[in-house]
Amino acid sequence: MRLALLVLLFKGPAHGYELKQALEKLMGAAYSQPNIGQIYVTLSRLENAGLIQGEDITQSSRPNKRIYRLTEAGQEAAADWFEEPAEPKIRDDFFMKLALAHETGAADRIGLINKQRRYCLNTMRDLSRLAASEDRDKRISQLLIEGAMLHLQADLDWLERCQEELE
To answer: Engineering a disulfide at 14: which of 4, 18, 34, 75 sits with its beta carbon 3.0 to 4.6 angstroms away?
Structure first.
């Protein structure tokens, strides 16, 4: 989330709640929503790292608020983030469980595969419902849901392959 907050500050100075709302609006319900405490902790860390600068704004009828703006170092960090490819998911908890169950006999491998398959199918069903309920104008959110469903389908295909190999 730290780099997402930096990039959102490219649009201009903002306070934590505005950044939270911007993330929620952009990503929709398919993306796990950060809580406001998480946002402010992250902003504090970014400020300590010199990537953003905060300024307290006095408000007469409300508590003071802190507005954050990007520093030059923050702009460079955000630009660097866009230049780096995203690391594909290779380390996988389920695969570790399956490998250890296979090696040690500590758990039923086929039972693990079946449990993971049910989890993937239930998640896919939930995402299908979410896709149907999301506003069609939220194209980014729809793409996120579609990508997650494609990953789940690949996982299901891989689980089938695992079962064939291990039976």
So the answer is: 18
